[in-house]
Design a protein that fits this description.
By secondary structure, the protein is an all-alpha fold. The protein has 2 domains: about 60 residues, lambda repressor-like DNA-binding domains (434 Repressor (Amino-terminal Domain)); about 35 residues, no CATH class. It contains 7 helices and no strands. Helix 2 packs across helix 3.
């Protein structure tokens, strides 16, 4: 199993980019990026997002999380949408949503 540092190093190689260039793109130092690659430090969430963007990938990919299938991905999107909005929904709307989901 590869580490986040391994995945960053591999993507740097694939993108023909060095650590200094990545550091400049994410607003960090070459030393900090080097520590990420050597697994001496783990990037915080905001930095992880910047690294993912700079390397044209996702934070999930950098973290080594399994990629969801299309069906799982749709389910996760729906789940997040409901979780974000559940507190704003009336009891009737919740019941309507449950009924609709169970029918499908």
């Amino acid at each position: 199993m590869s580490t986040i540092g391994d995945r960053i190093a591999q993507l740097l190689k694939e993108k023909n980019m060095n650590q200094r260039e990545l550091a400049a793109k994410i607003g960090s130092t070459e030393m900090t990026v080097s520590r990420y690659v050597r697994n001496e430090r783990k990037p915080k969430a905001d930095v992880l997002a910047k690294i993912a963007s700079a390397l044209n990938t996702t934070a999930d990919d950098l973290l080594g999380l399994e990629k969801a299938t299309d069906d799982e991905s749709e389910f996760l999107k729906l789940h997040r949408l409901i979780a974000r909005n559940a507190s704003k929904m009336t009891a009737e709307k919740k019941q309507e949503l449950i009924k609709t989901l169970l029918e499908k």
